[in-house]
Amino acid sequence: MSRADTSRRGSRPGRAGIRDVAAAAGVSITTVSDALNGKGRLPDATRRHVREVAERLGYRPSAAARTLRTGKSGLIGLTVTTYGDEPFTFTEFAYFAEMARAATSAALARGYALVILPATSRRSPVDVWSNVALDGTVVVDPSDHDPVVTELIRQGLPVVSDGRPPGTLPVTAWVDNDHEAAVTGILDHLAEAGARRIGLLTGTTTDTYTRLSTTAYLRWCERVGQDPVYEAYPAHDPCAGAVAADRLLARPDRPDAVYGLFDPNGTDLLAAARRYGLRVPEDLLLVCCSESAVYAGTEPPITTLSLKPRRIGTAVVQLLIDAIEGVAPEKPVEQVIPTELIVRTSSQRRPPRTTVSPPRVPEET
Amino acid sequence: MSRADTSRRGSRPGRAGIRDVAAAAGVSITTVSDALNGKGRLPDATRRHVREVAERLGYRPSAAARTLRTGKSGLIGLTVTTYGDEPFTFTEFAYFAEMARAATSAALARGYALVILPATSRRSPVDVWSNVALDGTVVVDPSDHDPVVTELIRQGLPVVSDGRPPGTLPVTAWVDNDHEAAVTGILDHLAEAGARRIGLLTGTTTDTYTRLSTTAYLRWCERVGQDPVYEAYPAHDPCAGAVAADRLLARPDRPDAVYGLFDPNGTDLLAAARRYGLRVPEDLLLVCCSESAVYAGTEPPITTLSLKPRRIGTAVVQLLIDAIEGVAPEKPVEQVIPTELIVRTSSQRRPPRTTVSPPRVPEET
DNA sequence: CCCGTTGACAGATACGTTTCTGCAAGGTCA
DNA sequence: TGACCTTGCAGAAACGTATCTGTCAACGGG
């Protein structure tokens, strides 16, 4: 028993450690680490030999040990403020899904992975947040004085938000659309198409998107001298949207054009218009904010505003990883992503050429 | 310099370690660990004191160190096989979004978090898979001989798949619908509503869902003596679906009822029917498999088959965590989730009472 | 012939926990 | 009064890696 007891201790069979590789290759642990990580000064022969032995043993470095040693985990948190009773609703609308998808792709391309985390740091039964080693976090639509964000920043972790942070929330960087400009552009577009009284379907929540969009609408109305006509409903309730759409079209001062702030508003408004015998676009012009492709196939196709969630998701992750790998900038970085208005039949009073359906062109999202 | 040099070494300021807490509380690190984790035999006074000191210092235990020591990370991988060129498409359809949402909720409720990972373990530039410590993995629709799944199983990690694993893929457990029964049920439903020739809109991919559904259709046709009428298209291409729907209705042996296997097929088929002047449901009965709520508001509302992705996502995670925390069962656990057919106007030749639109009832998904 | 330099590796330490083992003080029982 | 158990806590050994600090041989210049 001179040196035979260094074989393996309590490790589970099937998982080889760096020590096993070193022993099998006849070199030291240092050499194995350097050979596999491309560091140190090693002749190519040694490097190849070590790599070959590691491959043969099926060696996988322990992510936990590496994280502990280097301080980097390669993990990025992704969190969305909760709307209803569900802990999070990142797929409530197509926007979140697209944005999360793009963020995941961008992160993976740079060697990071996304961890989905709840917005509320409740302790039930353990706090998931403190159980995962994060290099940084993406926060979608943070609320004011968000305790999670504050705590993360206090720990020195970079936080990038999708959506302009409200109040004095000290995020590292943020990405957002110019919602005021988008709303103003849509209202101008509808007015140009002949709308005299434009209504708004908005939400009762106080998130930045809803707030900015609504005030932009009110300001536009004031500027052009139109009385505001809008209905607000809790955006997280799928049934409430249909009811609100109905209310809006049932008003005595019924609008002749409507912009809906949320994804399902298009179909809800279309259904409500059918119930009241209103033709779209002849009697009612329609635009809604959506990333869904179904509005290209409805009867009639509905004009939508795209917030470009893919570009936002990509930008957010790039900014975050830049902050993780580089030095965090002094002032928060702001990045504005332009929106895109996809004009379809529902917002054009005079169809471009003829009244029969034009040939479908492939939609690009 | 007798013992003063144990204060702090190279740790970043702002992050207190367990040693700092122990020193501040005047106890050993063992006592701190036991007090915070509810272990050991400590009087309540000591426990409270330690917790108070830890709170005051803002102590957060290092997840990496804990993972290294305990071997549990509290992280669950979530991966979806790639369809197109994108590394993954988990939000391609509403199904994946809903399923991922439910899986995340279920995981968080039990103290785990989900990490989104690519299906292909390509090395670009580093392998993300080996950079994250996982306790187990959820695989959606794994392909045959999936190298990632094989490697994970070889490492002794539990793997639960959404979708019956093809071939001899050795997963720990799996959850799926009874797709044959679902398709047969829909075809019976359509035949009962008066359909004489039922068509199918299916995919060219070889995943289990597409394969099982298509063969069930073919067997049903053989049983009732109908010639199969179907069109297949690459399901990951959003434009191809519209074209395939058009092709199906343009055939000389045009079907008088169609079942579409994928989410967007409903709107695509509806648009195609309008182009050919076919009334739904009078001239054409329509059913598609979808989780989207828009089909409750289309004109007419379209009957959909729900695969109950929330229940599947929940079940998959429960099974996986059971396997992580308990002893892995010898034989793979199989769990079948029933589907739900939401019958709407598009598949009822005779509307229930009257020809005017019935009052909308709140849909429950 | 000596010394400085460079290449190629090995030893040892630290990352921050959890937990096994140990140890004194005090109480109980024969 | 020992023997023995319980309580309340401390010491120290891992967990598996990355890296800092050597060490040793070869080598070339002066």
TrEMBL record, chains A, B:
UniProt entry keywords in alphabetical sequence: DNA-binding, Transcription, Transcription regulation
GO MF term (any one): DNA-binding transcription factor activity
Record-linked PROSITE patterns: HTH_LACI_1 (PS00356), HTH_LACI_2 (PS50932)
UniProt biased composition (Low complexity): 345-358
Gene3D superfamilies in the cross-refs: 3.40.50.2300, lambda repressor-like DNA-binding domains
InterPro entries per record: HTH_LacI, LacI/GalR-like_sensor, Lambda_DNA-bd_dom_sf, Peripla_BP_I
Domain called HTH lacI-type: residue spans: 16-70
Superkingdom of this protein's organism: Bacteria
Region feature (Disordered): 345-365
Official protein name in the record: LacI family transcriptional regulator
Record lineage: Bacteria, Bacillati, Actinomycetota, Actinomycetes, Kitasatosporales
